[in-house]
Amino acid sequence: MTHNTYTTPINSDKSSENHRLTHTRVRVRIPQIYHQEPLLSNLISQQGLNITINAALLGGNAKGDGWFDLRLQGTAKQIDSALIYLSDLDVEVWHESSAEPDGW
Fold this sequence. Notes:
Elements: E1 21-30, H1 39-45, E2 50-57, E3 66-75, H2 76-88, E4 92-97
Antiparallel strand pairs: 1-3, 1-4, 2-3
């Protein structure tokens, strides 16, 4: 007796790649004019990202630029949208993309 086994790959739908989580490390320079703006909060609420602050430098008197070392986690589309948002504000961003998406 023979048994035919058929296994469907978990990610057989190419659109599922748009929903895979990845992460990017970015370093962001926040100009003084944006110190009172909720830029990081906007990345979370508007872009749907998870953000980890690895390091930050922002003076209490806000006389100079602020610097953040961030880990952005979301889909590639969400991260791209966030980088465009920051670019549109003329915020300097240096980023390193992860080589592999998170998860299986």
